Each structure stands twice: as structure tokens, then as C-alpha cells.
Amino acid sequence: MSQAIAAAAARSGAAVQVIGIVPEGANGDRLVLELAEAGIGHAAVLRTQDRPMESADVSLALRYLPEVRVVVAAGLEPGLLTAVAEGAAFAGAPLVVVNVDHDATDDPAMPVDATVLAAPASDPDGTFAGFVAAFAVRLDRGEVPSDAWAGTLGALAVDPVS
Length: 162
Fold this sequence. Notes:
About 45% of the residues lie in helices and about 15% in strands. By secondary structure, the chain is of the alpha/beta class.
């Protein structure tokens, strides 16, 4: 889900950076090349043994990326929310949390001003990923969250059939 959101945002012309871990070797090379081909920056992707992200990884990565204007956390492990929220606050960036398999709204680390979205069980045509990307791009352009939300929803509107 996170790569689909990043790719959709990159297609819109937004500068996108991902934070993550890819394994060393051919599989990691393939993943990094896929990111580059999609126009997704990967300056904060750690090349190491395959292991889960840790809070320290997230904190370091968000401080390493000085021009962060929006943080989208998709499919985030519950224990990483504090680091992501602190990194977004450090950058003065709005935080968008996309829940995949748990309810982050009950997490005490969830900032009150974060936008929390529940991902659908599947997104085969990328509609949800595109919606999240469009919302994030509007935030990146400086729209306040309420205006960005209204504009993103409005872009989905269709005229009634008579």
C-alpha cells in the first residue's frame, strides 16, 4: 500500500521519499530500482539484513530528510507511531496515518491533529492509494488539512445522472 501511495504522489509531480529497509543483494537492488523507476526517492532506505523497522530507524530517517512537508505512514507497525509522530512534529509536517490491520486511533501516541484513514481490505485498482496520494499532494502544496480534504473529496464528485 505504501509504495502505491508513493508512486501515485510521484506521478502527480510531487517530490516523494520513502523510509524503509530493503535486504542486501539482488532483491534489495531490484526494490531500489523499482522505487527509482517510479520516481520515488529512497535516500532514507536502509540496505541491511531483512529485519523490521525500529523506532531509531524512523527517527534518524525523518531527521535525515530536511525538506519533509508531509508524512504519510501507511501500514505502520503499531510500535513505530511515536517515532513517526515525533518526526512529523519536528519537521512541522502534517501526519497522515493509513491503518491497514489495526486501529491506530486508540494509540496514545496518535497526535490529535493527525488524519487517520482506514485502508480497505484490498485496493486492486489503486483508487484508495490514489486518494491518499492526492490528499498528501494537496497538503504538500500548503493547503490546510480541512481544505485539502474537501478538495480531494470534491475531485471525486460526479454530476448526477438525470
